[in-house]
Amino acid sequence: MAKRDKIILGIIAGAAFMAYSFFPWATTTREIIRFNSPDEAANYFFTTRIINAQPIAVPEPLNGLANNLIHPRSTRVVNGAIVPVSFIGLPIIYGIIGLAFGRAILSFLTPLFTVLALLAAYACWRRLFGSATALLATTLLAIHPAVWYYASRGFYHNALFFDFLIFTWWGYWRWRESKWPQGWLVFCLFALAAALFVRTSEALWVLPIVGAAIIIDRRELRPAHLFTALLTGGLLIIFWFWLAISVYGQVWPLGYQVANGQNIISSKLPLFIKTSLWVVVPFGFSLFNIASNFLRYVVVLFLPFWLLVVGGFLYNRDQKINRSYVLAAGWVTLWLAIYYGSWNISDTVGAGGITVGSSYVRYWLPLYAIWLPYAALALLAIQRYLKGLTGRIWLAVVILLLAGASFTQVFFDYPEGLTYVAERLQKYRRAIITTESVVAPSSVIIGDRADKVFSPERRVIISDGRPVFSIPPVLEAVVRLVEVVPVYFYTVEQPNLELRQKLQQWRFNLRSPIMLPDGAFLYRLIRL
After folding, report:
1. How far is residue 294's CA from residue 170's CA, in Å, rounded to a whole number?
2. Which of 23-27, 71-75, 279-283, 484-488 bottoms out in mean pLDDT, i.e. has the lowest?
3. How far apart are CA 387 and CA 371, in angstroms?
4. List of long-range contacts for 208-213, beta carbons under 8 Å, 24+ apart
5. Is position 188 within any domain?
6. Terminal C-alpha separation, the chain
């Protein structure tokens, strides 16, 4: 690598780390920490359990009275204990690192891993496209809004999975170039295992690529490689089984419950075929949804990057393009578009708009990244056409404009830009501080999003998408709970007459509310 490239990479890495670290530094380096997503909150909570040398499963004695309803979102009750419902890899990995280096490092781990992944991506792209293209593609990856946004919100799984996947790819190249030593093979296997540990469901498209690589390199493989792979893989699988059984009481963790895919699975099909279809298309299959979501969250949301990708690909279609890379990129794009694009996701505040905070964006991180070398090729082609100093100035201006547009999108894309998220988190913190002296530690708080404000300091019961008091088991649980602990109702709107009458039918009365800084109300429930 040329000295100039090393200097530029160093600048990119340093600037990227500071950019990615700003939001976590501003929102999590304080005594009371809140997150805007249940997944983030659960991952952080279980990570801190590991750092404190506590069991991942959290016993909750009151769940015997509460129909196992006392738990925040992204968790579930198993054998009376609260456990993660999502993938457990991130809490385990970050918990181990936190044990070694302290809790203060947690918020900066995803920015750090993502910066290292940038360097690894450069090393891989350089082998395929040359130094100039790789350097520019790495720059585009660093400033891409999707990467910037989710590297900043570091307790989602997706960015860490993406980082470990790039480490696997880089390790594979080093393994090949080092004449197939065992050490780099072990590194590849551990990086791959870590990626799938963080997001196990992605194995459906990752493992076929691994299989294709094995077929391509089959003549270079030796029995020793097979032994190392079996030994390493066997140890990792044993660890996985032990962990799953100790936390969930079963080999396969619970995971998200998805029923959408059932709409294309005929009850007349054999069980094996139905099961296979459910695994491959758990969110259903809809060409309209795929096309619509791809257009909105790939093309429209990141239009400048996409136009550059298309331009670079068309410009280079008659030139030498690495066929294996194109096939892999096509496979990743096709699979992720079908797998997640069929899903109707409405998970953001004001979900009618197209926002960088949508779940589609974090699920499609690999899709955005894998085509960026072609965006770089387009920029370099225009630079060569302009020639000399004019071309270099033009390229610098374009990069600055893209970086500025990305900054605006990451921080000010309403309602999920980081600025708006930070404002909400500040309101949640002020709300819990307001109620700390009023709401006893033994209390149970009921509300559709009560966990965002009160968990983990207070027990919460949240809804399954319906109004919380329209769920009969909740009302039955409250009848029993009010006899032993204070119970509160959290709501962003004052209860209407219909709700008050429903509560009166169950002999509940609402006391005068506590006004919270987030604009919500907190009512004490009294049994008449």
Report:
1. 28
2. 279-283
3. 25
4. 208/331, 209/328, 209/331, 209/332, 212/328, 213/172
5. yes
6. 77
Q: Measured at the alpha carbon of residue 146, what is the angle toward residues 107 and 340, in degrees to the nearest 5?
A: 110
- Among 206, 228, 257, residue at a domain's last position: 257
Distance CA 170, CA 473 (A): 51
Q: Considering the chain, what is the average pLDDT of its residues?
A: 89
pLDDT number for residue 353: 72
Phi, psi of 456 (to 5 degrees): -100, 5
Q: Could you say which of 241, 257, 273 is where a domain stops?
A: 257
> How many angstroms separate the CA atoms of 33 and 92, rounded?
20
Domain with 36 in it:
3-43+88-139+151-257
| Residue bearing tokens 């619970």 | 254
**φ, ψ of residue 107 in degrees (nearest 5):** -65, -15
The pLDDT, as a whole number, for residue 524 is 94
CA dist., res. 94 & res. 197, Å (int): 12
Hey, how many other C-beta atoms are within 10 angstroms of the C-beta on 85? 22
Number of domains, the chain: 2
Q: With b meaning 16 or more CB within 10 Å and e meaning fewer, what string describes 10-46? A: eebbeebbebbbebbeebbeeeebbbbbbbbbbbbbb
Kindly tell me if the per-residue pLDDT of 405 is higher than 70: yes
Instruction: Note the pLDDT tens digit of each residue in 253-278.
Output: 554 444 444 444 455 556 555 555 55
